[in-house]
Amino acid sequence: MYKSIITLAVLLFIQFSSNAFSEEKAKIGEAAPNFTLTDSYRIAHKLSDFAGKFVVLEWINFDCPFVKKHYDSGNMQKLQKEYTKKDVVWLSICSSAPGKQGHFDNAEINNRIKEHKASPTAYLIDEKGEVGRLYSAKTTPQMFIINQKGVLVYAGAIDDIKSTDISDIEKAKNYVKEALNSLFKGKEINNKTSVPYGCSVKY
Question: How far is Cα 203 from Cα 30, in angstroms, rounded to an integer?
């Protein structure tokens, strides 16, 4: 009888913990929800493994015209290279479901990364959309920044001009660059949120 009560209590605790985690959503100023995803080389990455570092999450869909704007111009790759050299962890995440735009097999993903000369720390596959929903990712591209204490400090668009026109990149205010530069200087981020633009995430 006693063992049965203990077993029931443990099961209830596990169920409660599981439900609490599944309902947790990313919020600015709070600890970024942890997750584990496998990359295009079948290597698992856990967000908590990068504790003590700045982390950028970039929601991606290579076939989205808004994403193409930033990759065909080299804008996204420039940001990746600039900040990964400063020990920032850059995780590109694809939440496209199988059969939907942006979902590719690993060979195709790695081929496209090579063609674009992209250099994220890893390209993570979220085909069930669990992490995308956890972070309320709505568009591609959509950007999130986590500080060295594991707190979500930016969520929104890459910049302030909502277009697919490459010529707009030079005129735009790049929120990601602005936020990361502020973090490196130990300053407060001016724009902690913005309205993301792009293609809808293909859950």
Answer: 25
Beta bridge partners of 174: 159
Domain count for the chain? 1
DSSP letter for 57, please: E
Q: Give per-residue pLDDT as tens, 135-176.
A: 999 999 999 999 999 999 999 999 999 999 999 999 999 999
Residue 17 falls within a domain, yes or no?
no
In 27-74, alpha helices (H):
65-72
* DSSP state for residue 151 in the 8-state scheme: B
pLDDT (tens digit per residue) in 85-130: 999 999 999 999 999 999 999 999 999 999 999 999 999 999 999 9
Which residue's structure tokens are 């599981």? 18
Nearest to 156 by CA among 184, 172, 135, 171: 135
Domain carrying residue 54 = 26-200
Q: 119 near 84, Cβ under 8 Å?
A: yes
Residue 56 in tokens: 């950028």
pTM for this entry: 0.88
